[in-house]
Amino acid sequence: MRTSLLGLVALVALAAVPDANAHTFIFGANTPAKANAQCIRKITNPAGGFRNSPIKDLASQDMVCGFSPTSAATETCTVAAGGTIELIYGHNNAQDDVIDPSHVGPCEVYLQQRASATAAPANAGWFKIQEETWTQATGWCTIHLIANKGILKVTLPSSLPAGNYFLRTEINALHEADVLTSTNPARGAQFYVQCAEITVTGGAAGTVAATPQVSIPGHITPATPGVLFNIYTGGSILDKGATYPNPFGPAVATLAGGQAAPVPVPAPAPVPATPAPAPVPATPAPAPAPVPATPAPPACVPAPATPAPVPATPAPAPVPATPAPAPAPAPAGAPVYDFAWDISACYPSGTGANIFQLNIAATVNGEQPAADANGGLAALTITFGGLASIGISNTWSSANSKAVGNQWQFETIDDGPNIGGQFLLPAGVACNGKVPATVPTLTMTGQLLSGGAIVANIHPKGQAAGQGATVPVTPAPVPATPAPAPATPAPAPAAGGAPNYVVKASAGSCWGTGPTSFVLNLQIAVNGMQPAGDANGGLAALQLTFNGAQDITATQTWNAANTKTAGNVFSFETQDDQPNVGGIFSSNSLGCANGVITPALTFSLAGQLLSGGAINPSVV
């Protein structure tokens, strides 16, 4: 029943105005020689759609380089064999609302050697050079793309012959892939495909010899594992990729001479030659991914009741019995990196591991991190003292994240003040309310990407930290036994059977002044279950009032439809199978002190079913 109702809703929406709110498109490319080069082939808007609309017909010629017919790019991008090119994704403009966080899925990159500099794309002769599906270190490719603010970094094989090529990218969004398009034309996997025109230099001239080579369309069919895939069966969609096929579709090709094409996750780059006075991780920090623009962190709140399996966490790394000594103060003039953190959630995520969510309000010399001011961007290591190891489920507003033992190594990004992630606890460490039973002690070290020194402060949200070396944190005592369940049960259904809409609101760390920005996570339950289009009372139009604020603006939202703000009210519609709603909000009437919103916010809720029926709304 749910599928047919969803299909009807989708068809009605398509009949009115094509829904391109969450779609993505390549706007240009960065090469070593030029930023924002216009070497992307031009595509034709599909009938009744937009240039950023997805492709669903896997047998269509649109699968080659986008909606046909495509035409030549404005220019050609020149890249050396073994070099990198960065493709710039966005929604309506480069790097804006890159893709909806609910549209999780893999990214694939293919090459085809051109017969000449003016030849059109052909069906045969494509070979895959890059694969990024889901990994425990980085999560889904699309979430990684959002965290990198639309930058997809592609490294060319070093043995690639010199000449002209088409570089083809393919993103497969899985939010409607629980049914094939042939079964329900309104749903199915969504493919975002485009091609760049590149000239490869540095290699020997000749014909590329890559295995395997495939024809497009035809490289993927409805029977290919991963085209039909349900990301909603247990657990969070952010973790469901552990069971997704890897590779998706054809294997990454091997070029003549035995050289495999590069792996999708960027390899670590050497630490700059000039060391910083502050200690750096033993493992070099990865190379940065330039990522200008406003960050788009995904929503991260407790997962549904039936979690998806999570791969085993890495083998525990020994934790020193005593903390390492704080580094010596940095030289005068070194930028002050001040991180105010809190843990906003802890929840099950499969056998043997729980997940906790860490939020960080980051400032550099009192302002948000920036590539060209406030001291520059940095490579940082946060150590989770008290935990033997951590794993990474998902991170945001950071680049090149990885877990090493009980450390999180990452790089700050331009205009990324709201840093965070969801981290796997060691097997056997339970949740005690919204925090782990073992609350970690956080310390931080690092250096500028340029190699210069920094002052590294890290402290709990709400506490001040003096400028100086890393500030160790002693967490508040954790009760030996879990907190008792609330004495007041969930409200009984309202008169006439109106469904109970219960919203748990949690405002995360804040940053900035005039306006103050912050993240808000909403966990929505309808009669104790997640919202559904055909059960639990139906979907609803809700109005959430921010008591304590006079004005509210939503700069980004996720897992909600038809969002708008007026005064201090956020209006939105719930979506099928989407219990975790959130957004980034700003207000000129609120302040931010050490990562805490002032005055403290409370919330009230009103609304009705989309069908017009009454609901019983409440906020906890």
From TrEMBL:
EC number: 1.14.99.56
GO biological process, one term: cellulose catabolic process
Any Pfam family hit: AA9
Location of this chain's protein in the cell: Secreted
Primary location recorded for the protein, binned into one broad class: secreted
Note on domains (UniProt): Has a modular structure: an endo-beta-1,4-glucanase catalytic module at the N-terminus, a linker rich in serines and threonines, and a C-terminal carbohydrate-binding module (CBM).
PANTHER family (alphabetical): ENDO-BETA-1,4-GLUCANASE D, PUTATIVE (AFU_ORTHOLOGUE AFUA_1G12560)-RELATED
Function: Lytic polysaccharide monooxygenase (LMPO) that depolymerizes crystalline and amorphous polysaccharides via the oxidation of scissile alpha- or beta-(1-4)-glycosidic bonds, yielding C1 and/or C4 oxidation products. Catalysis by LPMOs requires the reduction of the active-site copper from Cu(II) to Cu(I) by a reducing agent and H(2)O(2) or O(2) as a cosubstrate.
Protein name as catalogued: AA9 family lytic polysaccharide monooxygenase
